[in-house]
Design goal:
It is built from eight helices and ten strands. The chain is an alpha+beta fold and about 350 residues long.
């Protein structure tokens, strides 16, 4: 252990700066490359690209003595219009600790969740970013599509029944009138079925309206094939006089469109996810843990949804930077803090990292 001559705090042997006061620790060997450290640049308040980001210290958390925020990441986000629920998760690195702060808002009000670990105790970081199939989104898209397709099909069936009844109740109606009506209905159904299928391609895969339109198209093709209400309506008038023709190929078409509708539902249910665990040398082995497993959230507080939410815009940047940032602050102290607060993204000098000759 290296004991700081300024404050007496005991640091690990591989630290070059005191984790408590930031002073340079005694040089282990004459060849220690830290003897050639460049001067530390003056600390800026916040680099420009991070000036409008989430501020943890002062606004949301009281800072410790000499604590300064290094960088913050908007890592998770959850929104549900149905339950009027919103949750946001931010991971913030300071020169003294790593903090995960989540805030949520729902019908029940506002909630806050927070976990942290001293930066000198960080022993390991595990991160995953990928995708999963959400059961909640599958069920939601399935029932929404069935409802939309059923309503559209029901409205069309009601209009057809009304038109046929008006002809049937007309004493002067002829079989030619019924045949003409049947042809007109078939043309309209073809246009609506094809139009719904084409319109679905104007929505992206993560929009629920794409599977809804495809299911509607499948229902319309099924109606065209002679199934459902249309067959029962025409059987009253022309079933014995005129055949409906071979419509099996239309039924096959309806089946194929239905399969595509299922594919669209699974596309919609494919959601991004991430998981993050920050290990600690003492206390809880994983004081910061974002599970990345989405759930219905019925029994969860709103803030806790940030632990199982979709990755936000800074998730990939967090993956690239967090490990290096924590290591630099642990080994280099104030110099590592200054480097990451500068936002330059450049490498530390070789004489600092120990890569120089």
């Amino acid at each position: 252990m290296k004991k700081c001559s300024n404050c007496g705090f005991e640091n690990s042997d591989n630290y070059q700066y005191c984790m408590k006061c930031g002073k340079l620790l005694p040089i282990a060997t004459p060849q220690d490359p830290s003897s050639n450290l460049p001067p530390v640049p003056p600390m800026s308040v916040e680099y420009q690209s991070n000036s409008k980001r989430f501020k943890l210290l002062v606004e949301n958390l009281a800072p410790a003595e000499g604590e300064a925020e290094v960088k913050s990441y908007h890592c998770t986000s959850f929104k549900s219009a149905l339950f009027n629920l919103k949750a946001e998760g931010h991971l913030v690195v300071t020169n003294k600790r790593v903090v995960f702060h989540a805030s949520g808002l729902s019908f029940a009000g506002k909630s806050i969740l927070q976990s942290e670990v001293p930066i000198e105790d960080v022993s390991g970081i595990s991160f995953y970013k990928g995708s999963y199939i959400s059961l909640m989104h599958i069920l939601g898209a399935f029932f929404f599509s069935i409802i939309v397709g059923g309503l559209a099909n029901g409205i069309i069936t009601a209009l057809i029944s009304s038109a046929v009844n008006s002809i049937r109740n007309n004493p002067s109606a002829t079989m030619n009138s019924l045949n003409s009506l049947q042809t007109s209905i078939q043309v309209v159904l073809w246009l609506l079925a094809i139009g719904s299928l084409i319109a679905s391609f104007f929505f992206s895969r993560n929009k629920i309206f794409r599977p809804a339109l495809v299911v509607t198209s499948s229902f319309l093709f099924a109606e065209l094939s002679g199934l459902g209400a249309l067959l029962s309506v025409y059987s009253l008038f022309i079933g014995s006089q005129q055949g409906t023709g071979n419509s099996s190929w239309i039924l096959i078409l309806s089946f194929l469109v239905g399969i595509y509708a299922l594919v669209c539902i699974f596309w919609y249910a494919r959601r991004p996810t991430m998981s993050l665990t920050v290990g600690s040398k003492g206390g809880s082995s994983t004081p910061i843990a974002i599970s990345g497993i989405s759930s219905f959230g019925i029994y969860n507080t709103s803030a806790s949804k940030a632990l199982s939410a979709e990755p936000a815009e800074d998730a990939e940047i967090l993956l690239k930077e967090l490990g290096a940032m924590v290591m630099d602050i642990q080994l280099l102290g104030d110099l590592g803090t200054q480097h990451w607060r500068s936002g330059s993204g450049s490498q530390l000098p070789n004489s600092v990292t120990g890569q120089g000759k």
